[in-house]
Specification:
By secondary structure, this protein is an alpha/beta fold. It contains 15 helices and 19 strands.
């Protein structure tokens, strides 16, 4: 083959009752794209979650929704049969179907298509994308990877419509696989264990370039019962601080971006030799950046020193991970102990952060969780001068809490990933709008 084959990469729609762009970018797919570019492939990229969608839709979005976070455009769809009867409106989030078809028409015939996937219960968006691909590019092999493919591989092989379903991290697998599918006979380089040796993600493919999504580590050394981090990235690895500073310098110079969102699951591990060294390098270079932590920070690792550096380095969106304030032998993680929340918040407040800048994640909808425990947690977080942020629990296959979720759920979680949807509270005895609204109102500072 003389000419490099074209590979089409797709970030699919979200099909759900609710979805919001909170610093969300398809970073895993963009890392793969960079590896393919280094191998000489020609790439095309379609981001079905691109915002704003088109001029007619964009002009109807509220002011301020054109930034690095905001609402996706939603088009109502019939609720899937397993979820019918719930008092919620289902829909497709992202670009319009017409816009997607236009993008396909503007794409040269690819040698293969790579589709990523996120939440297990968003698989209808994956199905819809692959159906359109089959219509437009019949016979072209479609490879599905990502979170849904990894956590529910048998379901994905049976129902997604993809020719191949790849589980686990994509970087070790993608080049040999595409060489076989396309006949592109360049020597396949060895898999790189050093994260700093990987090419930077192909952020230039994104239509919206105001955000730098950043990974300074992969995986997590903890093993919380409700979390899939170890399933998706079994090995915890950290990059060299100097290499991270070089990447930030590179992106700010080329994209003019100021906003940085850390995608790490364990950003504060070895903080003094890792994150604080990164921040020191950022400040010494005079980079004008603002940092966000949507994935949450480990409370027990926020010391007065760490808090001072977070303030000094211009951290704007702080999210702290706290499953519940209930402690004891039945706690679902080991990352928080008695007094950790108080000490972390005191350190952040002493450093100058206000209540509206500190969000504390509280999981709701857990198996056997009583509303009184949630109410107590909300009130405690507020009394300590922070903002409670409710995070709805989604049962995740193969996690330690999965077996208990199977036991208590009113749904058949094993056979239908739609039932993993956190919007339906699958581990509650029944869905209840008044119950959820009461907790949401209380978390927002209202009275119930």
């Amino acid at each position: 083959m003389n000419h490099p084959p074209t590979i089409l990469l797709i970030n699919p729609w979200i099909y759900d009752f609710a979805a919001h762009d909170f610093f969300a970018r398809p970073l895993g797919l963009l890392y793969l794209a960079a590896r393919l570019l280094a191998q000489g492939y020609a790439l095309r990229f379609i981001d079905c979650l691109e915002r704003p969608v088109d001029r007619n839709i964009a002009k109807n979005l509220p002011s301020g929704e054109h930034s690095v976070t905001g609402r996706y455009h939603k088009e109502p769809l019939p609720t899937p049969r397993p979820l019918r009867g719930l008092p919620r409106r289902y829909g497709r989030y992202g670009i319009s179907e017409a816009a997607f078809r236009d993008k396909l028409r503007g794409t040269p015939w690819p040698a293969a298509v790579l589709v990523t996937s996120l939440m297990t219960y968003w698989y209808p968006g994956v199905q819809a994308v692959i159906r359109r691909l089959r219509e437009h590019f019949p016979g072209v092999p479609v490879v599905l990877g990502g979170i849904y493919a990894t956590l529910c591989p048998e379901h994905a092989r049976r129902y997604s419509g993809a020719d191949l379903v790849q589980t686990g991290p994509g970087e070790p697998q993608i080049l040999p696989l595409l060489a076989e599918l396309t006949g592109w006979d360049r020597p396949v380089p060895p898999v790189l264990e050093d994260l700093d040796a990987l090419p930077y993600p192909a952020l230039h493919l994104l239509a919206e370039r105001g955000l730098i999504p950043l990974l300074t580590s992969r995986g997590c050394p903890l093993n919380c019962a409700y979390c899939a981090s170890k399933l998706l990235q079994p090995k915890f690895q950290q990059r060299r601080p100097a290499a991270v500073v070089e990447e930030l310098t590179y992106w700010q110079a080329r994209l003019g971006s100021k906003e940085v969102a850390f995608y790490d699951d364990a950003l504060l591990i070895n903080a003094e030799s890792h994150l604080l060294a990164i921040l020191e390098g950022v400040l010494s270079r005079g980079l004008d950046l603002r940092f966000h932590t949507p994935n949450g920070l480990h409370l027990k690792l926020i010391s007065p020193l760490v808090a001072k550096w977070l303030k000094k380095a211009n951290f704007s969106t702080l999210r702290l991970g706290l499953e519940t304030t209930a402690l004891g032998p039945k706690r679902l993680d080991s990352k928080v102990q008695a007094g950790d929340l108080e000490q972390a918040l005191a350190a952040l407040q002493e450093a100058g952060f206000g209540a509206d800048e500190i969000g504390v994640y509280l999981l709701i909808g857990l198996p056997h969780q009583e509303d009184t425990a949630i109410v107590d947690a909300i009130r405690q977080v507020r009394s300590l001068g922070a903002t409670p942020v409710l995070a709805q629990y989604s049962p995740i296959p193969h996690t330690a809490l999965w077996s208990e979720a199977l036991r208590v759920s009113r749904y058949d979680l094993e056979s239908e990933p739609l039932f993993h949807n956190n919007s339906i509270f699958p581990c509650w005895p029944e869905f209840s709008w008044p119950r959820y609204s009461r907790l949401k109102t209380l978390a927002a500072g209202g009275r119930v």
